[in-house]
Amino acid sequence: MTIREQLEERECEYLSPYATRSRESKGRMRDEEQCDIRPVFQRDRDRILHCKAFRRLKDKTQVFLSPEGDHYRTRMTHTLEVSQNARTIAKALRMNEDLVEAIALGHDLGHTPFGHAGERALNRVCPKGFVHSEQSVRTVDHLERDGQGLNLTYEVRDGIRNHQTANMPATLEGKIVRLSDKIAYIHHDMDDAIRAGLLTDEDVPRSIGDVLGYTTRERLDHFIHDIVVSSEGKDDICMSEPVAQAMKQLRAFMFEHIYQNPIAKSEEAKAETLIEALYEYYMKHIDLLPEDLLALKKREGTDKEIIVCDHVAGMTDRFAIATYEEIYIPKHWHG
Fold it and tell me: Of 2, 13, 55, 327, which sits 20 to 30 A from 132 (CA to CA)?
């Protein structure tokens, strides 16, 4: 019996009856030989962690564009916090931690530069639309490994695709990540807003604080405990009704004071204009796209609008700005 098979046996003995077992995976898009050490979801986690799209998350905006301080979150630190929250919940409920971690680490791989401002811009100018969760799946299916993709399991791809509010994942592990994503950004976006001087803990309405707590630390702790207690022994991942309602109120509060704050969002219009300009430029100069994207277009017959979105969405904030400057900003003439 291989080490992988021993680990799969251990899953059957230890995991909750509602958990997703590695040996019961629906499989990959392309069949491949099993690893003798790692179960399939652990292998997916490793593939995501080592891919180029994951490394680029370190220079992509979470909420605050190009902040001056060293301690504001980026898309990568957001991803790591989602992963940690999800693993804590999964361990307490005896769910499959490897599956949870793989989904969490991969859920934002397709996110644009400049956060949701970049996503709005691409969705507006691309006639086929743009949604970062779908782009994350496209990234792992088609764009990584020079167009070969990571060939992840169905369960990981499903969790990545359905991590946003509108959709529901097929596994409880996916549902854990879906809630952990919301918990993470509520927690760290509030923390960053306090760091930026836009809010204080005392600004949170009493109706919310009485349920969730009055500090970011208290709220994070309360969210995680409530999910664990509310979901234990159930074939579902859920919150208690009072906490779920308080979360909705807190999100509404944050949209008013942070996500739509004119000070915090003062540069977003510029970012959207930049992304739109890059999209329009490459639509007119498709031959300037990287060779791997042009090869993908030729091999699979993908529409050029999609390929241009692939290129622009894959940029980091810094690379997008540098590319825009290279194209549109006049340079000093050196005679």
Answer: 327
